Amino acid sequence: MQQVALQWGAHGLIAGVDEAGRGPLAGPVVAAAVILDELHPIKGLADSKKLTARKREQLFDEIRAKALCCSVAQASVQEIDELNILQATLLAMRRAVQGLRLSPKLVLVDGNRLPVLPMRAEAVIKGDALVAAISAASILAKVTRDRWCEDYDQQFPAYGFAKHKGYGTAAHLAALSEQGACPEHRTSFRPVAEVLAKGLA
């Protein structure tokens, strides 16, 4: 698949939006919004999951330096448990768009669901592979959440957050069973709820 070059055109500024962290058992869900500068193109943008960690880190810095503006936001574990993961994800996306210093005329969101926004928005299936601004947003969101996992691993090393990034791997589930849940585990997610039901908190 080839990415589509976005011009300012009649729509004005276009922002790409994506998230990271819907599936993990712990930590916030992170969203990013990016308005790229067509006068300063960024080579190598792609779905963040297709890039190496080193390449994501390199592009993270380049996006922050070259984009017209960008914003990263999140919804907390508490909000995830109160609202459900879909609504928390849409909340994080809305916060990311609201955090842009420039107001886009059009927002392109990866996936098939849209947050409530005051401007026109469109959902783009596989947008993180097709639209450069969404690719950039996916990289910012992924790197930000991965860094959160690495930091939290220092506080709770028994769970291995730096390795599995909060996903329900065998090692994570084993640690969860042995250690119980930590404050950043999502209690509304079944594996965590099952541990809590056994009194391991």
Structure description:
- The structure is a single chain.
- This protein has 201 residues and is α/β, with parallel strands linked by helices.
- Strands 3-2-1-4-5 form a five-stranded mixed beta sheet, sandwiched between helices.
- A hairpin with an 8-residue loop joins strand 1 (14-20) and strand 2 (29-35).
- Residues 5-10 have low confidence and may be disordered.
- It has eight helices and five strands.
- Helix 1 crosses helix 5 and helix 2 (77-83) packs across helix 3 (85-98).
Number of strands: 5
- The average pLDDT score comes to 93
Strand content: 15-25%
Oligomer: single chain
Helix content: 40-55%
Element-by-element helix/strand order: EEHEHHEEHHHHH
Please report the number of helical segments: 8
Low-pLDDT stretches are 5-10
Task: Sum up the structure in keywords.
5 strands; 42% helix; single chain; 5-stranded mixed β-sheet; 201 residues; alpha/beta
Structural topology:
Layout: E1 14-20, E2 29-35, H1 53-66, E3 69-75, H2 77-83, H3 85-98, E4 106-110, E5 120-124, H4 127-130, H5 132-155, H6 161-164, H7 170-179, H8 190-197
Parallel strand pairs: 1-4, 4-5
Antiparallel strand pairs: 1-2, 2-3
Produce a short descriptive summary.
It contains eight helices and five strands. It has helices at 53-66, 77-83, 85-98, 127-130, 132-155, 161-164, 170-179, 190-197, and strands spanning 14-20, 29-35, 69-75, 106-110, 120-124.
